[in-house]
Amino acid sequence: MANPKKILNDPKKVVPEMIEGLVAANDGRLYKLDNLPALIRTDIPDGKVALLIGGGSGHEPLFHGFVGKNMGDGAACGQVFAAPSPDVIYEAAKAVNRGKGVLFLYGNYAGDNMNFDMATEMLEDDGIDVRTVRVTDDVAAAPPERTHDRRGIAGDIYMIKIAGGASAELDSLYEVERVARKAIANIRSMGVAVAAGSIPETGKLTFELAEDEIEIGMGAHGEAGIARQKMKPADAVADELMEKILTDLPFRKGDEVALLINNLGATTMMEMLIVNRRIRQILEREGIKVHRTDIGTWLTVQEMAGFSVTLMKLDDELKHYLDMPAESLGYSRM
């Protein structure tokens, strides 16, 4: 398979140039920390519990595209598919802090865990209270008894939405953490890829699939999934993903859920709508009510072709924060 073409300047400068463009696209609502790949809201209210999100670049609009009103207050950016450094996280956390402490929210990957933990120790030495919630929604990454080992994939979007709303309304860092932990306990996701993405600096594919193969359950960087199979119809793919997701929580008759179908980069809306048709048939059969549906592009792996499905079981509190208005380049809701 040929390596994909990209419209770039210097492949070694993709992250700083991307950040420059992102700041410009926010028309004064964000600023970049001096000489650091971190983005901060210009209008964080005094006395607010701060929400800092972050992770590797290359997944746009996640994470840095989700900084805004009732979303993240700032984002620490890493290089493509690499964790942000501890000093970037540290400086970003100080910039968003408004005296009520900072909640760290990010995907459960080794590099992110290590660097955010190092930044936490530095901040605590400065007297800043920090709490951490890691996104662990990928049912393919580990069995149910080891949810703490699971990767974070598109569940990040609902987590940022809910934690952003909670941090805007609640006065206590510990209450915001409680809401975020409730949210991740009720989110399950799984993805499928039909073609790999690539790394801009090298131009190389992150993995290889034969023309007639799909990868079920791969991670957000192309990590191996649970099965490599021959291509099959959309309904059969949706059936396989939903069987794994529904039995994992488990979701039951009478539950009310939010449904998110995420484009991994190069999948068309037509394909995702066909998948949504099948998913809604399955949920109706199981007696599970859909409160809202989000279909779009939020966590990408460059030009990876494929999609992921996320279900979140709702109660009144989670529904309230999910439905709050929000404004960011990557996700807005009136």
In short:
By secondary structure, this protein is α/β, with parallel strands linked by helices. The chain folds into 2 domains: 176 residues, Dihydroxyacetone kinase, domain 1 (Rossmann fold, 3-Layer(aba) Sandwich), CATH 3.40.50; 133 residues, Hypothetical Protein Tm841, Chain: A,domain 3 (2-Layer Sandwich), CATH 3.30.1180.20.
Keywords:
single chain; 334 residues; alpha/beta; Rossmann fold; Hypothetical Protein Tm841, Chain: A,domain 3; 2 domains; six-stranded mixed β-sheet; 8 helices; 23% strand; globular
Number of domains: 2
Radius of gyration: 19 Å
The name of the CATH topology of the largest domain is Rossmann fold
* SSE order: HEEEEHEHEHHEEEHEHEEH
Annotated CATH homologous superfamily of the largest domain: Dihydroxyacetone kinase, domain 1
**How many strands, which pairing sense, and closed or not: the largest β-sheet?**
6 strands, mixed
Structural class based on helices, strands and sheet pairing: alpha/beta
Number of helices: 8
- The CATH architecture assignment of the largest domain turns out to be 3-Layer(aba) Sandwich
Question: Count the strands?
Answer: 12
What characteristic shape results from the CA principal axes? globular
Poorly predicted segments: none
CATH C-level class of the largest domain: Alpha Beta
* Strand arrangement, major sheet: 1-2-4-3-5-6
Distance between the first and last residues' Cα: 42 Å
Please bin the fraction of helical residues.
25-40%
Strand content: 15-25%
Q: What is the residue-mean pLDDT, rounded to a whole number?
A: 95
